[in-house]
Structure to design on (442 residues):
């Protein structure tokens, strides 16, 4: 049988290396290959040809973001702020449904409300029930009256500094008092948003005056509205009333800032300082016009039961207050703490800006607090922070020396300035004036 052989022209070695969509020109029978695209590939290590294309495997399986476990999604979106979450939920319906969960909005911080979209402000009340840390500074009262009622008992940190918050807003946040029936006393509604609050900052809120007195009634049968509060900042506010005694209404208070509260009467403040919470570590009383007489009664109303309660908190075990055997022992010195008991933390007392205090009066206060007959003796040491420049005493000679010292510093500065000008040297004020004149000439 005859065998026929069909000879076909050999394929150009570079045509297989061309990408799809590329064709060699037909007019030139011997085209010149492009060195950048048609350079021959180096042989493999095994000597096999590399003309064959690598086969791709099967498509990898993947899961959509909205199909991930809820725990993983919470950890991912936890790195986004509330504005980014609000934009993300508008991508599609899947994200919209996913980001409706209030648990994803545990930290809501809005430093500048005027730059936010009004639709975002309208959206916030639907998710604030899961918020733990809420910061809304410089916010008007109209917006706060809409957002604060949406908070729940999950709230642990509330920062409303320099905002228009009112007493009624915080009272409503704690739960409005309702009447159980005709002739019954008012009781606080269960599930208020302040029962787990640990930090309250209302610095610079000029519309607050007596919300603490409304939330902390004086009758002993009522429960405190702040059982877990550890930090409260009332500085630069219009507060005029404090709940008494402080240790009853703030049993876990650690930091208390009352700096620059001009409407707080000094006699009322002295009564409040007579019974401070046992765990208080920082007390800021700066710029209040205090004198040594106002601070002598620090902790004077707290008895042995209060001291024993503080020891129980520090040690971590329940202890009973020691009973006094006779009234004659009331002025006796307390026994020193045992060596096995942990050291009590010092009370840091900030008294900056109280110009009536002197070095002599502060030394007398420290001696009074450490005296055996003092109610503060045996509790904790007191660390006082005061202004850098104080009078030595109220004596006329000390006052005159202080005035002469200040006047000498001023005169010395003026003399140095005159000497510099006489020598033709330029001081910082001259350089500033020269720069200002150069700018005005331009």
């Amino acid at each position: 049988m005859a065998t026929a052989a069909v000879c076909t022209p050999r394929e150009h070695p570079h045509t297989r290396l061309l990408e799809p969509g590329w064709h060699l020109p037909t007019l030139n029978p011997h085209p010149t290959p492009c060195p950048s695209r048609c350079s021959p590939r180096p042989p493999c290590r095994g000597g096999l040809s590399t003309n064959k294309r690598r086969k791709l495997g099967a498509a990898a399986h993947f899961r959509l973001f909205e199909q991930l476990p809820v725990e993983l999604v919470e950890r991912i979106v936890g790195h986004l702020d509330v504005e980014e979450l609000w934009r993300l939920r508008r991508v599609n319906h899947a994200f919209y449904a996913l980001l409706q969960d209030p648990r994803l909005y545990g930290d809501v911080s809005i430093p500048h409300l005027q730059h936010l979209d009004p639709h975002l402000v309208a959206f916030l009340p639907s998710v604030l029930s899961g918020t733990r840390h809420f910061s809304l500074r410089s916010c008007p009262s109209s917006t706060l009256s809409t957002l604060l009622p949406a908070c729940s008992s999950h709230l642990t940190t509330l920062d409303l500094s320099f905002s228009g918050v009112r007493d009624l807003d915080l009272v409503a946040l704690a739960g409005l008092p309702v009447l159980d029936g005709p002739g019954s006393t008012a009781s606080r509604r269960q599930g208020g948003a302040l029962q787990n609050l640990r930090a309250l900052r209302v610095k610079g809120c000029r519309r607050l005056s007596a919300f603490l007195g409304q939330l902390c009634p004086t009758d002993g049968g009522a429960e405190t509205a702040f059982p877990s509060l550890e930090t409260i900042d009332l500085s630069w506010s219009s507060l005029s009333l404090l709940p008494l005694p402080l240790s009853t209404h703030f049993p876990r208070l650690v930091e208390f800032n009352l700096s620059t509260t001009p409407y707080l009467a000094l006699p009322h403040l002295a009564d409040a300082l007579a019974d401070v919470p046992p765990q208080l570590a920082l007390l800021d009383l700066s710029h209040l016009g205090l004198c040594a007489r106002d601070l002598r009664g620090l902790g004077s109303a707290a008895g042995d039961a209060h001291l024993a309660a503080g020891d129980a908190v520090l040690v971590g075990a329940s202890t009973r207050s020691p009973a006094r055997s006779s009234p004659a022992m009331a002025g006796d010195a307390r026994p020193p703490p045992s060596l096995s008991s942990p050291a009590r933390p010092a009370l840091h007392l900030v008294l900056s800006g109280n110009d009536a205090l002197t070095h002599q009066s502060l030394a007398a206060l420290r001696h009074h607090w450490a005296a055996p007959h003092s109610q503060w003796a045996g509790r904790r040491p007191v660390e006082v922070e005061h202004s850098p420049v104080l009078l030595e005493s109220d004596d006329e000679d000390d006052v005159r020396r202080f005035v002469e010292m200040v006047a000498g510093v001023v005169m010395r500065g003026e003399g140095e300035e005159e000497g510099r000008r006489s020598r033709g040297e330029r001081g910082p004020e001259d350089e500033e004036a020269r720069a200002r004149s150069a700018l005005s000439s331009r």
User: Anything to note?
Assistant: Residues 64-104 form one domain. The CA atoms of residues 192 and 409 lie 57 Å apart.
